Amino acid sequence: MLLLQSDDAVDCAFLQSEARKASVSVFGNSVYIRGLVEISNHCRNNCFYCGIRSGNPSVARYRLDKDEILECCARGHSLGFRTFVLQGGEDPAQTDDWVEDVVRSIRAGFPDCAITLSLGEKPAESYRRFKAAGADRYLLRHETFNKEHYLKLHPASMSRERRLGCLSDLKELGYQTGSGFMVGSPFQSLDNIVEDILFIQDLQPEMIGIGPFIHHPDTPFSDSPDGSVSLTLKLISIFRLINPQALIPATTSLATLDAGARGKGILSGANVVMPNLTPASRRRDYSLYEGKAAFGAESAEGLEELRKEMKAIGYEVVVGRGDYGDSRLIN
To answer: pTM of the full predicted structure?
Structure first.
Protein backbone atom coordinates (compact mmCIF):
# COMPACT_ATOMS: atom_id res chain seq x y z
CA MET A 1 0.00 0.00 0.00
CA LEU A 2 2.82 2.43 0.88
CA LEU A 3 4.40 1.81 -2.50
CA LEU A 4 1.13 2.54 -4.30
CA GLN A 5 0.74 5.76 -2.33
CA SER A 6 4.33 6.92 -2.75
CA ASP A 7 5.19 9.69 -5.20
CA ASP A 8 8.87 9.62 -4.25
CA ALA A 9 10.88 9.83 -7.48
CA VAL A 10 13.72 7.71 -6.10
CA ASP A 11 11.35 4.94 -5.02
CA CYS A 12 9.56 4.95 -8.38
CA ALA A 13 12.82 4.92 -10.35
CA PHE A 14 14.14 1.99 -8.29
CA LEU A 15 10.92 0.03 -8.80
CA GLN A 16 11.04 0.64 -12.54
CA SER A 17 14.71 -0.35 -12.73
CA GLU A 18 14.16 -3.61 -10.87
CA ALA A 19 11.15 -4.47 -13.04
CA ARG A 20 13.12 -3.75 -16.20
CA LYS A 21 15.92 -6.03 -15.00
CA ALA A 22 13.41 -8.79 -14.29
CA SER A 23 11.92 -8.50 -17.77
CA VAL A 24 15.30 -8.45 -19.51
CA SER A 25 16.47 -11.47 -17.50
CA VAL A 26 13.70 -13.56 -19.09
CA PHE A 27 13.01 -11.96 -22.47
CA GLY A 28 16.12 -9.92 -23.21
CA ASN A 29 15.38 -6.62 -24.91
CA SER A 30 12.65 -8.17 -27.05
CA VAL A 31 9.25 -6.57 -27.52
CA TYR A 32 6.60 -8.89 -28.90
CA ILE A 33 3.90 -7.72 -31.30
CA ARG A 34 0.34 -9.00 -31.42
CA GLY A 35 -1.92 -8.21 -34.35
CA LEU A 36 -5.23 -6.96 -32.96
CA VAL A 37 -8.35 -7.69 -35.03
CA GLU A 38 -11.52 -6.16 -33.56
CA ILE A 39 -14.07 -8.51 -35.04
CA SER A 40 -17.34 -7.00 -33.77
CA ASN A 41 -18.59 -4.05 -31.73
CA HIS A 42 -21.97 -5.68 -31.05
CA CYS A 43 -22.28 -6.66 -27.39
CA ARG A 44 -25.04 -8.18 -25.31
CA ASN A 45 -23.67 -6.56 -22.13
CA ASN A 46 -24.26 -3.07 -20.80
CA CYS A 47 -21.11 -2.41 -18.76
CA PHE A 48 -21.34 1.13 -17.45
CA TYR A 49 -17.81 2.15 -18.56
CA CYS A 50 -17.79 0.76 -22.10
CA GLY A 51 -18.47 2.73 -25.27
CA ILE A 52 -19.81 -0.30 -27.17
CA ARG A 53 -22.23 -1.34 -24.39
CA SER A 54 -25.62 -2.56 -25.57
CA GLY A 55 -27.34 0.52 -24.13
CA ASN A 56 -25.43 2.99 -26.32
CA PRO A 57 -27.58 3.82 -29.38
CA SER A 58 -24.89 6.06 -30.92
CA VAL A 59 -22.52 3.28 -31.96
CA ALA A 60 -22.13 2.50 -35.67
CA ARG A 61 -22.33 -1.26 -35.28
CA TYR A 62 -20.33 -3.69 -37.43
CA ARG A 63 -19.10 -7.25 -37.46
CA LEU A 64 -16.36 -8.67 -39.67
CA ASP A 65 -17.02 -11.82 -41.66
CA LYS A 66 -14.58 -14.72 -41.86
CA ASP A 67 -13.01 -13.59 -45.13
CA GLU A 68 -12.34 -10.11 -43.73
CA ILE A 69 -10.69 -11.61 -40.65
CA LEU A 70 -8.52 -13.91 -42.75
CA GLU A 71 -7.51 -10.94 -44.90
CA CYS A 72 -6.41 -9.10 -41.76
CA CYS A 73 -4.38 -12.11 -40.70
CA ALA A 74 -2.77 -12.47 -44.12
CA ARG A 75 -1.75 -8.82 -44.09
CA GLY A 76 -0.41 -9.16 -40.57
CA HIS A 77 1.50 -12.32 -41.38
CA SER A 78 3.23 -10.60 -44.29
CA LEU A 79 4.31 -7.83 -41.91
CA GLY A 80 5.78 -10.29 -39.42
CA PHE A 81 2.99 -10.84 -36.92
CA ARG A 82 2.95 -14.34 -35.45
CA THR A 83 0.13 -13.81 -32.95
CA PHE A 84 -3.37 -12.68 -33.83
CA VAL A 85 -5.77 -11.39 -31.19
CA LEU A 86 -9.45 -11.63 -32.11
CA GLN A 87 -11.26 -9.18 -29.84
CA GLY A 88 -14.91 -8.31 -29.78
CA GLY A 89 -18.00 -7.69 -27.75
CA GLU A 90 -20.16 -10.61 -26.69
CA ASP A 91 -21.93 -10.71 -30.04
CA PRO A 92 -24.84 -13.23 -30.14
CA ALA A 93 -24.56 -13.45 -33.93
CA GLN A 94 -21.01 -14.76 -33.70
CA THR A 95 -22.01 -18.19 -32.46
CA ASP A 96 -19.74 -20.91 -31.13
CA ASP A 97 -19.95 -22.66 -34.49
CA TRP A 98 -18.87 -19.47 -36.24
CA VAL A 99 -15.97 -18.78 -33.85
CA GLU A 100 -14.82 -22.38 -34.08
CA ASP A 101 -14.84 -22.19 -37.88
CA VAL A 102 -12.87 -18.93 -37.90
CA VAL A 103 -10.27 -20.27 -35.46
CA ARG A 104 -9.90 -23.49 -37.44
CA SER A 105 -9.43 -21.49 -40.66
CA ILE A 106 -6.76 -19.26 -39.12
CA ARG A 107 -4.97 -22.32 -37.73
CA ALA A 108 -5.01 -23.97 -41.16
CA GLY A 109 -3.87 -20.85 -42.98
CA PHE A 110 -1.22 -19.70 -40.51
CA PRO A 111 0.08 -22.78 -38.67
CA ASP A 112 3.13 -20.94 -37.30
CA CYS A 113 0.99 -18.39 -35.46
CA ALA A 114 -0.59 -18.23 -32.03
CA ILE A 115 -4.30 -17.45 -31.86
CA THR A 116 -5.61 -15.38 -28.97
CA LEU A 117 -9.30 -14.83 -28.32
CA SER A 118 -10.86 -12.02 -26.29
CA LEU A 119 -14.59 -12.57 -26.70
CA GLY A 120 -15.89 -12.37 -23.16
CA GLU A 121 -17.67 -14.84 -20.94
CA LYS A 122 -18.56 -18.23 -22.41
CA PRO A 123 -19.55 -21.64 -21.06
CA ALA A 124 -16.63 -23.97 -20.42
CA GLU A 125 -17.75 -26.16 -23.32
CA SER A 126 -17.40 -23.20 -25.71
CA TYR A 127 -13.88 -22.54 -24.50
CA ARG A 128 -13.10 -26.24 -24.97
CA ARG A 129 -14.34 -26.16 -28.55
CA PHE A 130 -12.31 -23.06 -29.40
CA LYS A 131 -9.17 -24.63 -27.98
CA ALA A 132 -9.75 -27.86 -29.89
CA ALA A 133 -10.10 -25.77 -33.05
CA GLY A 134 -6.68 -24.22 -32.48
CA ALA A 135 -6.93 -21.28 -30.05
CA ASP A 136 -3.90 -20.94 -27.78
CA ARG A 137 -4.68 -18.00 -25.52
CA TYR A 138 -7.66 -16.20 -24.05
CA LEU A 139 -7.85 -12.70 -22.60
CA LEU A 140 -10.55 -11.96 -20.04
CA ARG A 141 -9.91 -9.07 -17.68
CA HIS A 142 -11.56 -9.54 -14.33
CA GLU A 143 -11.84 -5.69 -14.01
CA THR A 144 -12.10 -5.78 -10.22
CA PHE A 145 -11.90 -8.54 -7.62
CA ASN A 146 -14.00 -6.62 -5.10
CA LYS A 147 -17.67 -7.68 -5.32
CA GLU A 148 -19.14 -4.31 -4.31
CA HIS A 149 -16.93 -2.48 -6.78
CA TYR A 150 -17.88 -4.94 -9.53
CA LEU A 151 -21.56 -4.17 -8.97
CA LYS A 152 -20.87 -0.46 -9.39
CA LEU A 153 -19.28 -1.03 -12.79
CA HIS A 154 -21.71 -3.59 -14.23
CA PRO A 155 -25.47 -4.19 -14.51
CA ALA A 156 -27.14 -6.68 -12.19
CA SER A 157 -27.30 -9.20 -15.04
CA MET A 158 -23.52 -9.65 -14.79
CA SER A 159 -21.74 -11.49 -12.03
CA ARG A 160 -18.25 -11.24 -10.56
CA GLU A 161 -18.50 -14.91 -9.63
CA ARG A 162 -19.23 -15.87 -13.23
CA ARG A 163 -16.27 -13.84 -14.47
CA LEU A 164 -13.92 -15.49 -12.00
CA GLY A 165 -15.41 -18.87 -12.88
CA CYS A 166 -14.64 -18.30 -16.55
CA LEU A 167 -11.01 -17.52 -15.70
CA SER A 168 -10.84 -20.73 -13.69
CA ASP A 169 -12.28 -22.70 -16.62
CA LEU A 170 -9.73 -21.21 -19.01
CA LYS A 171 -6.83 -22.14 -16.76
CA GLU A 172 -8.17 -25.69 -16.30
CA LEU A 173 -8.52 -26.11 -20.08
CA GLY A 174 -4.86 -25.24 -20.58
CA TYR A 175 -5.20 -21.85 -22.22
CA GLN A 176 -2.48 -19.31 -21.76
CA THR A 177 -4.81 -17.04 -19.84
CA GLY A 178 -4.79 -13.28 -19.50
CA SER A 179 -6.52 -11.13 -16.92
CA GLY A 180 -6.26 -7.58 -15.60
CA PHE A 181 -8.18 -4.45 -14.76
CA MET A 182 -8.65 -0.74 -15.40
CA VAL A 183 -6.56 1.58 -13.25
CA GLY A 184 -8.60 4.45 -11.86
CA SER A 185 -12.01 3.10 -12.75
CA PRO A 186 -14.94 4.87 -11.05
CA PHE A 187 -15.23 4.13 -7.32
CA GLN A 188 -11.91 2.26 -7.28
CA SER A 189 -9.87 2.57 -4.08
CA LEU A 190 -6.26 1.63 -3.38
CA ASP A 191 -7.64 -1.17 -1.23
CA ASN A 192 -9.42 -2.49 -4.34
CA ILE A 193 -6.14 -2.39 -6.26
CA VAL A 194 -4.39 -4.33 -3.49
CA GLU A 195 -7.13 -6.97 -3.78
CA ASP A 196 -6.55 -7.10 -7.53
CA ILE A 197 -2.80 -7.54 -7.05
CA LEU A 198 -3.37 -10.41 -4.63
CA PHE A 199 -5.90 -12.04 -6.96
CA ILE A 200 -3.52 -11.92 -9.91
CA GLN A 201 -0.68 -13.19 -7.76
CA ASP A 202 -2.88 -16.17 -6.86
CA LEU A 203 -4.22 -16.76 -10.39
CA GLN A 204 -0.75 -16.56 -12.00
CA PRO A 205 -2.07 -15.65 -15.45
CA GLU A 206 0.31 -15.95 -18.37
CA MET A 207 -0.76 -12.48 -19.52
CA ILE A 208 -1.50 -9.43 -17.36
CA GLY A 209 -3.29 -6.54 -19.06
CA ILE A 210 -3.78 -3.28 -17.21
CA GLY A 211 -4.41 0.20 -18.51
CA PRO A 212 -5.81 3.48 -17.25
CA PHE A 213 -9.56 3.97 -17.25
CA ILE A 214 -10.61 6.44 -19.97
CA HIS A 215 -14.12 7.82 -19.96
CA HIS A 216 -16.51 7.59 -22.91
CA PRO A 217 -19.09 10.35 -23.49
CA ASP A 218 -21.95 7.90 -24.12
CA THR A 219 -21.74 6.05 -20.81
CA PRO A 220 -22.96 6.71 -17.25
CA PHE A 221 -19.33 7.53 -16.38
CA SER A 222 -18.93 10.23 -19.01
CA ASP A 223 -17.89 12.79 -16.39
CA SER A 224 -15.54 10.51 -14.45
CA PRO A 225 -11.84 11.46 -14.44
CA ASP A 226 -9.43 9.33 -16.44
CA GLY A 227 -7.06 6.98 -14.66
CA SER A 228 -3.47 7.74 -13.79
CA VAL A 229 -0.69 6.93 -16.25
CA SER A 230 1.91 7.05 -13.48
CA LEU A 231 0.00 4.61 -11.26
CA THR A 232 -0.50 2.28 -14.25
CA LEU A 233 3.24 2.30 -14.92
CA LYS A 234 3.93 1.58 -11.27
CA LEU A 235 1.56 -1.40 -11.38
CA ILE A 236 3.20 -2.74 -14.53
CA SER A 237 6.47 -2.80 -12.58
CA ILE A 238 4.85 -4.50 -9.59
CA PHE A 239 3.31 -7.20 -11.76
CA ARG A 240 6.61 -7.78 -13.57
CA LEU A 241 8.31 -8.40 -10.22
CA ILE A 242 5.47 -10.65 -9.04
CA ASN A 243 5.54 -12.70 -12.26
CA PRO A 244 8.80 -12.22 -14.21
CA GLN A 245 7.68 -14.58 -17.00
CA ALA A 246 4.35 -12.88 -17.72
CA LEU A 247 3.44 -11.26 -21.01
CA ILE A 248 2.51 -7.69 -20.08
CA PRO A 249 1.39 -5.21 -22.74
CA ALA A 250 2.00 -1.51 -22.90
CA THR A 251 -1.67 -0.95 -23.67
CA THR A 252 -3.40 1.25 -26.22
CA SER A 253 -5.10 3.14 -23.38
CA LEU A 254 -1.66 4.18 -22.10
CA ALA A 255 -0.74 5.50 -25.54
CA THR A 256 -4.12 7.24 -25.82
CA LEU A 257 -3.54 9.32 -22.69
CA ASP A 258 0.18 9.88 -23.30
CA ALA A 259 1.85 9.24 -26.66
CA GLY A 260 5.14 8.59 -24.88
CA ALA A 261 3.67 6.18 -22.37
CA ARG A 262 4.10 3.15 -24.63
CA GLY A 263 7.86 3.46 -24.28
CA LYS A 264 7.51 4.25 -20.58
CA GLY A 265 5.49 1.07 -20.22
CA ILE A 266 8.25 -1.02 -21.82
CA LEU A 267 10.83 0.65 -19.57
CA SER A 268 8.60 -0.17 -16.58
CA GLY A 269 8.63 -3.89 -17.38
CA ALA A 270 6.08 -4.43 -20.15
CA ASN A 271 7.15 -6.55 -23.11
CA VAL A 272 4.19 -6.62 -25.52
CA VAL A 273 2.52 -4.13 -27.87
CA MET A 274 -0.63 -4.80 -29.88
CA PRO A 275 -0.75 -2.88 -33.18
CA ASN A 276 -4.18 -2.70 -34.78
CA LEU A 277 -4.91 -4.89 -37.82
CA THR A 278 -8.63 -4.07 -37.93
CA PRO A 279 -9.70 -2.61 -41.30
CA ALA A 280 -9.01 1.13 -41.06
CA SER A 281 -12.60 1.97 -41.94
CA ARG A 282 -13.85 0.19 -38.81
CA ARG A 283 -11.28 1.14 -36.18
CA ARG A 284 -13.00 4.27 -34.93
CA ASP A 285 -16.25 2.32 -34.49
CA TYR A 286 -14.58 0.02 -31.95
CA SER A 287 -14.68 2.87 -29.47
CA LEU A 288 -14.37 1.39 -25.99
CA TYR A 289 -13.36 4.81 -24.66
CA GLU A 290 -12.93 8.33 -26.00
CA GLY A 291 -10.07 9.03 -28.39
CA LYS A 292 -8.83 5.43 -28.61
CA ALA A 293 -5.50 5.37 -30.44
CA ALA A 294 -5.67 3.10 -33.49
CA PHE A 295 -3.36 4.67 -36.06
CA GLY A 296 0.32 5.61 -36.25
CA ALA A 297 2.53 3.39 -34.09
CA GLU A 298 -0.65 1.79 -32.69
CA SER A 299 -1.44 0.33 -36.11
CA ALA A 300 -0.04 -2.38 -38.35
CA GLU A 301 0.78 0.29 -40.92
CA GLY A 302 2.91 2.06 -38.33
CA LEU A 303 5.07 -0.96 -37.54
CA GLU A 304 8.25 0.70 -38.80
CA GLU A 305 7.48 3.73 -36.65
CA LEU A 306 7.05 1.40 -33.69
CA ARG A 307 10.37 -0.32 -34.43
CA LYS A 308 12.16 3.03 -34.40
CA GLU A 309 10.42 4.05 -31.19
CA MET A 310 11.48 0.85 -29.44
CA LYS A 311 15.03 1.03 -30.81
CA ALA A 312 15.36 4.53 -29.39
CA ILE A 313 14.90 3.15 -25.87
CA GLY A 314 17.13 0.10 -26.39
CA TYR A 315 14.55 -2.52 -27.36
CA GLU A 316 13.85 -4.56 -30.47
CA VAL A 317 10.50 -5.51 -31.96
CA VAL A 318 10.83 -9.22 -32.73
CA VAL A 319 9.02 -11.61 -35.04
CA GLY A 320 7.78 -14.63 -33.14
CA ARG A 321 4.89 -16.07 -31.14
CA GLY A 322 6.34 -14.81 -27.88
CA ASP A 323 4.96 -17.42 -25.54
CA TYR A 324 4.82 -17.19 -21.77
CA GLY A 325 8.24 -17.08 -20.16
CA ASP A 326 10.14 -18.64 -23.05
CA SER A 327 12.28 -16.30 -25.11
CA ARG A 328 13.65 -19.36 -26.95
CA LEU A 329 10.48 -19.33 -29.05
CA ILE A 330 11.50 -16.12 -30.79
CA ASN A 331 11.96 -16.87 -34.48
So the answer is: 0.94
